[in-house]
Design a protein that fits this description.
The protein is an alpha+beta fold. The protein is 39% helix and 18% strand. The strands form two sheets. It has a six-stranded antiparallel beta sheet. Helix 3 packs across helix 4 and helix 6 packs across helix 9. The N and C termini lie close together (11 Å).
Length: 251
């Protein structure tokens, strides 16, 4: 982690774990912008952003399918809730298919948050977990819960056919659900999770496929598809450009 860019993420436990992957923050305290590359990670992010004297901005970021170069302005502070896809239906209660690879602005008082909540991470974490807990469904479709658990535990390596058979839900219906709620197919989502798992290996210096890629050529092609660069360049992570890779390396 570079000295001029700070980040912290906590993975909630218990009932929240089915819906929330992490709650965290990142901060660029320097007087210069921080150039980063955002990589697809299969998460839906709710950002609370404070930059300079500008008012608090709240935005919901849809799933990403490609790398994107971004510039984090000086003094920008972001608190983030990173949701698993199951939260789209049950916690956010609105499809995000309309902003794949993009974001939508939300009211600046969304969920009752304000600028004071961004002064202390522990305060933000407590308020976020309490709010999400009130939104937890009394009952969720067990097929969907099982489906996402299998997708995550298999790191995106199970085929659509196998997933369909295990949760007793037709692949056609699953893909319709994914397309309507998230804006992409089940296979496309699994490919993103497999890429993200590969980043964990690359962060450890493993530049050959550890997962079920056909061969080294296929592995390189998939990594380049989602990151824009080959595994060797990713592993160098010059200037901590690839923030997700930096976070995984810290684990």
């Amino acid at each position: 982690m570079s000295n001029d860019f700070y980040y912290k993420f906590i993975n909630p436990e218990g009932a929240l774990a089915d819906f929330v992957e992490s709650i965290g923050m990142f901060h660029n305290p320097s007087d210069a912008p921080k150039e980063v590359v955002v990589l697809p990670d299969g998460r839906v992010d709710l950002f609370f952003v404070k930059s300079g004297q500008a008012p608090l901005q709240v935005m919901l970021i849809g799933l990403e399918t490609e790398a994107e170069q971004r510039s984090i302005p000086p003094q920008m502070l972001v608190f983030a809730i990173s949701f698993k896809p199951l939260a789209v239906e049950y916690i956010l209660q609105a499809p995000i298919a309309g902003f794949l690879n993009s974001a939508t602005d939300l009211p600046d008082d969304f969920w009752g948050f304000n600028e004071d909540d961004l002064k202390d991470f522990d305060v933000f974490y407590k308020k976020a977990t309490e709010k999400i807990t009130t939104l937890l469904p009394q009952e969720a479709d067990e097929r969907k819960r099982m489906l996402f658990n299998l997708i995550y535990t298999s790191k995106g390596e199970m085929s659509v056919k196998e997933l369909s058979e295990k949760v007793f839900w037709s692949s056609r219906q699953i893909n319709r659900y994914f397309t309507q709620q998230l804006g992409l197919s089940l296979k496309a989502y699994c490919d993103i999770l497999r890429f993200r798992t590969s980043l964990e290996h690359i962060a450890q210096g493993k530049l050959f496929p550890e997962l079920n890629f056909t061969d080294q050529s296929h592995f390189i092609k998939e990594i380049r598809k989602f990151s824009g660069v080959v595994p060797k360049e990713l592993s160098k992570n010059k200037n901590d450009r690839f923030v997700l890779l930096s976070v995984l390396k810290e684990k």
